[in-house]
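pasting input
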Amino acid sequence: MNVAHFEYVQRLGDNALILGQRLSEWCGHSPFLEEDIAMANTALDLIGRARMLYAHAAALEGQGRDEDALAYGRDERQFGNFLICELPNGDYACTLIRQYLVDVYHHALYSTLCGSSDAGLAAIAGKAVKECAYHLRRSGDWVVRLGDGTAESHARCQAALDEVWAYTAEMFNGDAIDDAMAAAGIGVAPGSLAAAWRDEVEAQLALATLSVPRDDWSASGGRQGLHTEHMGRLLAELQFVQRAYPGQKW
Amino acid sequence: MASAQPPADDAAMAALLSVLDEVHDPEIPILTIADLGVLREVRIDAGRVVVVITPTYSGCPAMHAIEDDIEHALTAAGYRDFTVETQLAPAWSTDQMSAAAHAKLRSVGIAPPTRITTDKRALLGEHVMCPRCASRQTERISEFGSTACKALYRCRNCLEPFDYFKCL
């Protein structure tokens, strides 16, 4: 087994699962019915994507683990998702700003992964990219509606942007696993996505009358399993049933 | 090639397809899985039935139910040796839905997906036709409707809200 290949696919799954879990917390609590449905559907797409990526990673590993073992049977330090995915939802503006910034990244990432030399990964990317385009359209729309909305919605969006901005740099700072996978034609060098991401985000923020925050500090560590204090609580809720009753099915 | 096979195989395949034709989408029951384009391939490998399906959306909760329904239908029809496989590539597209599927959707008040998903306006859900009065004066209320594959629209002509089966 190629360990880097397994880790790379598993990390993609981690980003999808953890963000999907966060979004699912809005189910039944969103500001109005249509958004409640939209948020839950987006969460479902992400969790479905995680499931496909984990199943593929488990097959690459060939140790008899399945997607559930990867989702429910690992501890915090073994998850390689970006910190931005695990941040608490905050208010609705914060959830949507975070979603937009990650959607732009994911759309570019999965567009490129459609050409992966790993046929299984390319097939998953082919499904994911269509959903990413749809998610991006919704989140981008909301960024403009709320940013260029009332004084209250504008202020909340700007505060959210200022809060999460420092977590975006991590998405583009690849490590040895990313480098190896990019060199093998399996993955994408994250840094190669940075310039286009920045251009697209800046243009949308301008439409939304929001200011691009200064790049004065940034947080990272997710790829290495060094998470924020929020990750443990998220996993506790996500994994509780399988931890209490290992292998339980319904 | 069906024509090169003995007639017995043709009959067996026809019988099998008629069983699968009774499997419907659990969330849009007017459509069969063949109408929806979820049923991708059916073959008989040395006596074993292989049914290949593809998911509509990554997180579509109906996929598991569809797999169960296929297994139940086959078991009820007396099949014992079968497998249901999932295939991701090529990714499902609403272009794979049949013309019959479009007509069925319209008959229950759901606007079918606009054809030719390479047209950006179609992908963005513009020019959606009201399934009740056929007006194109419609507006989107929500990106997501009652299921992941639908969006919620309203007709500005007849004022009725309706589901639109999104282009994907």
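fyi Chain B has five helices and seven strands.
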